[in-house]
Amino acid sequence: LHNTGTNNIVFEEVIGSGGSSIVYKGILKTNNSPVAIKSLTKEYYKYAINEKFTLTRLSHENIVKLLDTYY
Length: 71
Fold this sequence. Notes:
By secondary structure, this protein is α+β, with helices and mostly antiparallel strands. The protein contains 1 helix and 3 strands. It has a 3-stranded antiparallel beta sheet with strand order 1-2-3, with no helix packed on it. It is globular and about 30 Å long.
């Protein structure tokens, strides 16, 4: 996992995984907010652009808010 884009996050545990990514539970050091961090494989990059576009436009209580991306 790249530490450049995640240096303000404390990783607690893996909360999901699949063929294209691993999802970690973390806590932001700045305000102790819980976050989910998705680490992608290189092959998944082209799909990640579409996922980012979709997530920035969705709002639902069961979908986490997209704060930022790092490639």
